[in-house]
Amino acid sequence: MTAIHEPGHLLVVDDNRVNRLLLIHGLEQEGHDVAYAENGRQALDMLASRPFDLMLLDIEMPVMNGFQVLEALLADPNFRDLPVIMTSASDELDRVVKCIEMGAEDYLTKPLNPVLLRARVNASLEKKRLRDQQRKLLHTFAMPEVADELMKNGLTLGGKHVDASVMFADIRSFTAIAETQDPADTIGLLNDYFALMFDAVTAHGGIPNQMAGDGLMAVFGAPVAHEDHCERAVRAALEMMENLAAFNAQQASLRKVQIRIGIGVASGVMIAGYTGTQHRAQYTCIGDTVNLGARLEQHTKVAGCPILIDANTRSGLPEDIAIEPLGPVLFKGKQQSVDVFSVRVPGG
Amino acid sequence: MELDMTVYDELKETTGSDFVDELVETYLDDAPKLLGELKSSMEAQDVEAFRRAAHSLKSSSATFGARGLSEMARELEMLAKENNLSEAATKLPALERALHSVETELKGLRQ
Asked: Exposure of B54 by Cβ count < 10 A (0-12 exposed, 13-18 middle, 19+ buried)?
């Protein structure tokens, strides 16, 4: 297999001028664009000023040494994924091991062997390109938070318990709307609708994780934990109603069909994880809390209120969100009745 | 002979003689400064600065095949790590002599 070696933007960090010159020369001969820093602090400043594909980092340096640079990189989400090759003296392998454990990708010992230098640099750049490609693909098909978690922790289909809020939203009488419309108009309407709902959900840190027909499911507080997930979910629901009102006004002016929706939010412990196969998976949540969220959404038709929430969600809301208790409701398939609350929609 | 000519020739072969001349210039410029740092940090009993200067001299000397000098610098680095500057002081004159020989040899090799 012959790999195609595209030039990369490299940053050489070494306080020793002889070592630095040798490294820069070797890398420039390979066609790379090389910049250098004389210590760790300078290196971090340069990273902040422009993007690099790879860093070659000395351990022993004044001002800020290699360990401190690695630590700073790992703590910064912007630089966490920057590959780092340690360049060290051959008698400090124990320190190199520590760097690899901390997250450095590879190492080279000085004096540098030009063949090894070429091989390790090209391998690191190649790996980075693959990772970047993978990231781009993931971000096309998954929500950014899910993609980030997948990139960070890899795809594990196993689930875990999370404390979160789940939201279900549905268009009222959508089948009837669809029957009266041209199919292309129906799909166009759905796309406009989903775009508006997605905006509201993601603006509050939620993840729209399932779409089925005209239904939408979103989760708040997982996979990235948010302590205020109840408030986020309800504020997203209110923003969805606001977006929908604007959308309906526009539809009315165009003499097009207007839509009404129902939203249910339930909060508590649920099982979250990726379901599917290694080739196709989605982030989802299951459990009683999730079922309750779906039931609350269905109950909006009966109650005549657009946003219904459970007691757990209510207890996580600040006072400025107006709530009206609707009393206990016994849902189908449940042993005990559940207290239901309606969230008042301003102007609604 | 302080320099291992196999190392030096290999360096020349892989990087080109013009570049090696530039590298030698840099070394001849920096090595005396590192020796100066070793002496001043010894005087000030600054173990950290002494260790770092020894580390740097060890590393760049090895690049040209100055094995003996590099090994002496390594010893000084180790002694500094052990906080033993008094023993390091006894070894400094030998390192200085080795460095001067290396400098002379490198100057002779320049084109």
From this structure: buried
- Longest Cα–Cα distance of chain A, Å, equals 79
The domain of B9 spans: 5-109
B74, pLDDT greater than 80: yes
Distance between A21 CA and the closest CA of chain B, angstroms: 7
Residue type at position A211: M
**Residue A4's CB: how many other CB atoms inside 10 A?**
7
Instruction: Supply the pTM of this predicted model.
Output: 0.58
Strands A215-220 and A307-310: unpaired
CATH code where residue B59 lies: 1.20.120.160
ipTM of the complex: 0.93
Q: What whole-number distance in Å separates Cα of residue B24 and Cα of residue A238?
A: 71
Asked if B58's CB is within 8 angstroms of A89's CB, the reply is yes
Q: Is A325 on the interface with B (CB under 8 A)?
A: no
* Residue among A213, A212, A257, A267 at smallest CA distance from A237: A267
d(CA A224, CA A219): 10
- Tell whether A63 lies on the interface with B, counting CB pairs under 8 A: no
Domain count, chain B: 1
